[in-house]
């Protein structure tokens, strides 16, 4: 396979993963998978939470595709697609776990309008304690915070946690 086609598959996969992540977050994690994801909407009491299992679950297709494409004689595009899934996972980890939730040492202060928007949208997602009534399910593409605040207000703040004392 020509490297340019592989690179196109890689970048299309990274972009497509945002749509997949949105759907998985909205309809799986805030649906039947809430039993794992709920831990992410509660204060963490250690280094890990049950929600972290999703990273391992979503890494499996990436691993299998890379292995199949690189070692098992599958279509070479599988390697590029698997790498795209892995890259999205790494980007997501960097944005979500390090920048937004500050789970790694070192403080990142968002300065660009894009980064401020992503961080604020994700924080607005977390003001809701329940699996219903949440806003902003994507991560790298987020609605304007003003729209999210208006939607929370329209829902009469259903499920929004009380302010900390």
The overall strand count is: 0
Broad structural category: mainly alpha
Biggest β-sheet, characterized?
none
Number of helices: 6
- Overall mean pLDDT: 88
Q: What is the overall silhouette?
A: globular
Determine the oligomeric state from the structure. single chain
Rg, Cα atoms, Å: 18 Å
Low-pLDDT segments, ≥5 res: none
Please give the share of residues in helix.
Answer: 55-70%
Measured by DSSP, the beta-strand proportion falls in under 5%
Can you tell me about this structure?
The structure is a single chain. This protein is an all-alpha fold. The chain contains six helices and no strands. The termini are far apart. The mean pLDDT is 88.
Note the main attributes of this structure.
165 residues; mainly alpha; 6 helices
Write the layout of secondary structure elements.
Blueprint: H1 3-29, H2 34-37, H3 53-71, H4 77-100, H5 113-125, H6 145-154
Helix pairs in contact: 1-4, 3-4
Please provide a brief summary of the model.
With 165 residues, the protein is mainly α.
């Amino acid at each position: 396979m020509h490297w340019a086609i592989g690179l196109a598959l890689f970048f299309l996969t990274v972009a497509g993963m945002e749509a997949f992540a949105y759907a998985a977050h909205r309809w799986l994690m805030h649906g039947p998978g809430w039993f794992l994801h709920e831990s992410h909407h509660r204060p963490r009491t250690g280094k890990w939470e049950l929600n972290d299992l999703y990273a391992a679950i979503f890494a499996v297709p990436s691993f299998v595709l890379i292995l199949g494409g690189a070692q098992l004689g599958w279509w070479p595009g599988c390697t590029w697609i698997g790498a795209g899934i892995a890259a999205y996972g790494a980007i997501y980890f960097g944005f979500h776990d390090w920048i937004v939730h500050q789970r790694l040492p070192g403080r990142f202060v968002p300065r660009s309008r894009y980064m401020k928007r992503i961080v604020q949208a994700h924080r607005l997602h977390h003001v809701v304690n329940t699996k219903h009534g949440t806003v902003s399910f994507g991560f790298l593409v987020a609605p304007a915070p003003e729209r999210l605040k208006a939607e929370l207000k329209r829902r009469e703040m259903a499920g929004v946690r009380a302010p900390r004392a």
